[in-house]
Amino acid sequence: GEDVEQSLFLSVREGDSSVINCTYTDSSSTYLYWYKQEPGAGLQLLTYIFSNMDMKQDQRLTVLLNKKDKHLSLRIADTQTGDSAIYFCADLIGSGYALNFGKGTSLLVTP
Amino acid sequence: EAGVAQSPRYKIIEKRQSVAFWCNPISGHATLYWYQQILGQGPKLLIQFQNNGVVDDSQLPKDRFSAERLKGVDSTLKIQPAKLEDSAVYLCASSSSGRAGNEQFFGPGTRLTVL
Q1: What is the average pLDDT across A25-46?
Q2: Contact at CB, B48 and A94, closer than 8 angstroms
Q3: What does each C-alpha distance from A110 to A9, A18, A19, A100 come to in angstroms?
Q4: Which of A17, A54, A93, B53 sits 20 to 30 Å CA-CA off B23?
């Protein structure tokens, strides 16, 4: 499938904001997703954005979409140690709309 | 509501052996996916079912991997014979339908180690 690229690692202090970035290449992507994966746990959908939106806010999470640059970001406000996890950006591929994931960004939140 | 169930959770085999994984999706979900997640990478789709039919198996290594969903409910993924590079977590997911925007719910995965 088309490429989804993410930076691999981010470290922030507790209480700061975290910004995780993602770029994608498929201009026809209709939905873009952020998933969270904690050690030993399954993938959990955090939020998603439809391609006709520029921004979506959900409590501490803000998603920004720049379709021109094919850039997606996830901002986590007031980051907590419980937010430490791997965050995956994904778009949809194929006629069946399966998920096409990036390699994931490992977020480490330090006290 | 029960989530996606997978078994076993862990499996260790030697190369050239065979192995099978089982997945039971959320009740009523028509669409079932198998993803392979190699360490340090994102999950990659292996196969997608809509009820008991295959929607996409373009990335399934068909010389060694097979999957079925005979009654349109639970599914089995098999590897025969296994190679070292098959060491990964195998994730099963389901959604109510295969439409864009429908949330996919993931199981805990089966961690396979091939020695």
Answers
A1: 88
A2: yes
A3: 13, 12, 15, 30
A4: A93
